[in-house]
Design goal:
Layout: E1 2-8, H1 13-25, E2 30-35, E3 49-55, H2 67-76, E4 84-91, H3 101-112, E5 116-117, E6 122-125, H4 132-148
Parallel strand pairs: 1-2, 1-3, 3-4, 4-5, 4-6
Helix pairs in contact: 1-4
């Protein structure tokens, strides 16, 4: 299975998580990693499974590198029917009103254009969880086990 990991980052944490996930997946899957800043939503391949990793910045804003992607989604309105993705967000629950808004904003916009999120949004809470890459890896392993399980 080809997996494309897309990340939106402000300080580099989401990029680190994306790279760590890619390294863990490469033994069993073809993997590509790309910054959302360099990604054209209309060019996403529905034959790939996508994993979107994003932090939240400031008072719930998207991280800087996610804005170009988000603007293209809003302005160009690409049809994303058939695109399946997983979503993982990094945040801090001490910021009660803005916790996880970065990934939620991307998730809502992707769905608005016809993409289908698989399962729940995974989350790393900087206030409570340990290493974000370990949290993301445990979450992803669970999702992939369900996705790749043989159907009866």
């Amino acid at each position: 299975m080809m997996i494309t990991i897309l990340y939106g980052t402000e300080s580099g944490n989401s990029e680190m998580v994306a790279e760590d996930l890619a390294a863990a997946l490469r033994d069993d899957h073809e993997v590509a990693v790309a910054d959302l800043a360099d990604t054209d939503p209309a060019g996403l391949d529905p034959a790939h499974l996508h994993l979107v990793v994003s932090s939240t910045y400031g008072d719930g804003e998207l991280p800087k590198s996610a804005y170009p992607f988000y603007r293209r989604l809003k302005e160009e309105t690409p049809a994303l029917g058939g695109l399946r993705y997983l979503a993982f967000g990094l945040g801090d629950s001490d910021y009660v009103y803005s916790y996880g808004l970065g990934i939620e904003t991307l998730d809502q916009e992707l769905q608005r254009h016809g993409a289908e999120r698989i399962g729940d949004i995974g989350r790393h809470d900087a206030s409570e969880d340990g290493d974000p890459s370990e949290t993301a890896q445990a979450w992803l392993n669970e999702k992939l086990a369900l996705l790749l399980a043989p159907t009866p």
